[in-house]
Amino acid sequence: MIEQDVSKYIYEQIENTIITNHLLKDGDRIVVAVSGGPDSMCLLSSLFELKHHFKEQHNINYELLVAHVNHMIRKESYDEKEYVENFCKQKNIPFYYLKENVPELSKKLKMSEETCGRKVRYDFFEKIRQETNSTIIATAHNLNDDAETILLNIMRGTGLNGLTGMDYQYKNIIRPLLNIKKIDINLYNESLNLNPCIDKTNFENNYIRNKIRNVLIPEIETEYNSNIVGNLIRMKKLLKNDENFLKEYTQKVLKTCIIDNTIDSIKFKISFITKEMESIACRLIREIINLKVGNLEGIENIHIQDVLTLLKHHIKGKKYCIGNKFTIEILGKDIVMIY
């Protein structure tokens, strides 16, 4: 692609993704998560360049502000902060910065640096979103990231939802680059002379995602299937239709299943779950747990199966507990409570 063509292509892809998936509305204020790397600089530059176009063509006005995190892991982090901040000054974009010693914090919280870093970033993005009365957070996940996520989920032993990879929107987070290949992002940056920062640790195979990106996918492309990334995304799109149908059906059953929903507990009918096929029954149990607890962290398939067994036996007074997360108790012949 020549310079004009790659820019036009990127802008058209982002516009189509945003409009088709209703990612933005008039008056949105967007917190753009920017590391200074190729992906996030492509995202920030594109959203900036498209502002006038969205106003003229779609009657959508939006504001941009940037959130940048220094994890204090690499000495280059301070240069990256300056690079992003200078770009924001040139474009008159508000810039918000956090410096957090992730190596120390990860030890304190007893989690990996990778997990800790992600938590620090997203907590900061959400903090800025709330403090600035912003409506949405934009991240620069691309098509290759999506394929890597699917492979990672397969290796961890995923269900159908894990095979559908990333969504264009998850809660307050949108991913406008999700349809765009890494190679096209790099071409865009070159064509506009953005000279993004390069995180050399991305080429080190210390983390499993890096190994998937740098070792597994190239090996598959060379030895087995040169279009593995494209095929994974095609599979994702096919399975997404099935996943959406199952989600919709589960929600319909859930509405009839729940008897009472308070801050302290949720009561629901056992028969509405046990009469369904096991795949739907397990989905219903997950949804009820999520409704009560607010998340499914630490909830594995074995826990869901244990709860399903409890419901099938429906012995009054029997309980199932997972630490201090929740307790499920059989109250009567067809009534169960989670608290």
Summed up:
The protein has helices at 3-20, 38-49, 51-58, 77-91, 102-109, 113-131, 143-156, 182-191, 208-223, 228-257, 271-274, 278-293, 301-313; strands spanning 28-33, 62-70, 95-99, 136-138, 169-170, 173-174, 258-261, 266-269, 319-322, 326-330, 335-338.
Task: Give a description of the structure.
The protein folds into 2 domains: 3-142 and 166-204, HUPs (Rossmann fold), CATH 3.40.50.620; 262-338, Uridine Diphospho-n-acetylenolpyruvylglucosamine Reductase, domain 3. The protein is 54% helix and 14% strand. The protein is built from 13 helices and 11 strands. It has helices at residues 3-20, 38-49, 51-58, 77-91, 102-109, 113-131, 143-156, 182-191, 208-223, 228-257, 271-274, 278-293, 301-313, and strands at residues 28-33, 62-70, 95-99, 136-138, 169-170, 173-174, 258-261, 266-269, 319-322, 326-330, 335-338. The strands form 2 sheets. It has a 6-stranded mixed β-sheet with strand order 3-2-1-4-6-5, with helices on both faces. Strand 9 and strand 10 form a beta hairpin. Helix 1 crosses helix 8, helix 7 (143-156) crosses helix 9 and helix 10 (228-257) crosses helix 12. The protein starts with a helix and ends with a strand. The model has no long low-confidence stretch (mean pLDDT 94).
What's the helix-strand series? HEHHEHEHHEHEEHHHEEHHHEEE
Helix content: 40-55%
Major sheet description: 6 strands, mixed
Q: Averaging pLDDT over every residue, what do you get?
A: 94
What is the approximate shape? globular
Number of helices: 13
- CATH architecture group name of the largest domain: 3-Layer(aba) Sandwich
Percent strand: 5-15%
Instruction: Name the assembly state.
Output: single chain
Unreliable spans: none
What is the alpha-carbon Rg in Å? Answer: 23 Å
Question: Going by CATH, what is the homologous superfamily of the largest domain?
Answer: HUPs
How far from one another are the termini?
Answer: 58 Å
Strand arrangement, major sheet: 3-2-1-4-6-5
Structural class category: alpha/beta
